[in-house]
Amino acid sequence: MTRRGRHIVLVGLGVAAAVLLAAGWLVGTTPGSTWLLERALSLAPVKVTVERVEGRLADRFVLHGLRTAWQENALAIDELTLDWSPWSLPSRTLNISRLALRGLTLQLVPPAEPSTPATPRKLAWPSLPGWLEPWRIHVDALHLEDLRLARPSADDLHAERLSAALRLEEGRVFIDKFEGVGAGRRLHADLELGLKAAGLKGRLALVAADDSEMESLALGVDLTNAEGEGLVAGPVQATAGLPGWPDLRLDGRIKLTEERLDLTALKISRSDATGTVAGWLALGWTSPDLRGEGELEVQQWSHGTAPDEAVTVNGQLSGGGTIDAHHGRFDLRVTGNSWREGRLAGGWSGERSSLRAAIERGQWLGGELSGNLLAAWGERTEATIQLAARRLDPARLAADWNGSVNLKADIGLTLDADDTK
Predict the structure, then answer these.
(1) Non-local CB neighbours of 223 within 8 Å, separated by 6+ positions
(2) Three-state DSSP class for 231?
(3) Which whole number is the average pLDDT over 102-118?
(4) How many CB atoms lie within 10 A of CB 133?
């Protein structure tokens, strides 16, 4: 090798060594990591500040006092800790041993309502950005402590802590051993979300944070994408429990499309096997307002255990519309001892702040009932009730009451907002 060639090799080795030393200083020391983070944050589209940095980017670092704001929104994190390994990044794998955030406060101000009429909305299943598809991401332990969502026109939402293990593999997101604690409740979940091939399966359970006896809720789904079934479809199961009441179970089939959600083959049953509710429900969102509809049939739904107090309900309920214009029909029959037996059949319609209902066919005490209800609420709640009864048998209330009763009644009720406090 000539002298010139040796010089070129030596210079190249020197440059390579300098680059390695600089890279080692940047990711392997606290001053270098601080400098690199500051340069990276300065390139962000919004201003991001950090009070103090501990550790190094090569394995573990801690950010204290992370703050950012955009428009009228703001995010503050008292402490962010990241234990990770950057050495697997060349193979498109991100391994994080532990990601912990403490004292996270998010302030969101909802955007102003558009002045132009809303266009019909269509739902799309979430998908991965193209550049992220070949990546594998593993978060062995995610911990969030003292989370708060600040809302200007409502009370803040607060969660004491959240924890989970997260994985992104082959277009699927896995959320394992999720636990969230807040408002006296504890939420457990294990979920799998398909992004490349649409799907959602898993189970959630909501119980008391102190494991005491109280209301509980569990939900399980297994939704997949099938030809002709919209975005996803599949079975759903749910159970609910209240202290002193039989547990409720819901079984059905969900179908989610771009325009609506259908719950068919719906069946609600009780743990004491006394009655069911069956039917279907649907929710659509192509119009500016959400629109719901459904039909339910009540079969042998019982209440009460003492023979002289037990009642059984059978009948049908149906309805539909938006919050500004809704309507429905009802026909419910109650069987039981003495005065507890009766029937109410009719219809109702309403708007956001008013309701009208009519009893078209009613039975009670062996006689006939009819009537109307008109109610409106806002700063003042007003209600007018008109009832008419024919040939009621008072002996069903008390054995020594004889005769037949006919009556008409007009009842008016007014309640100011201050009276409800």
Answers:
(1) 199, 200, 201, 232, 233, 234, 236, 254, 256
(2) coil
(3) 74
(4) 14
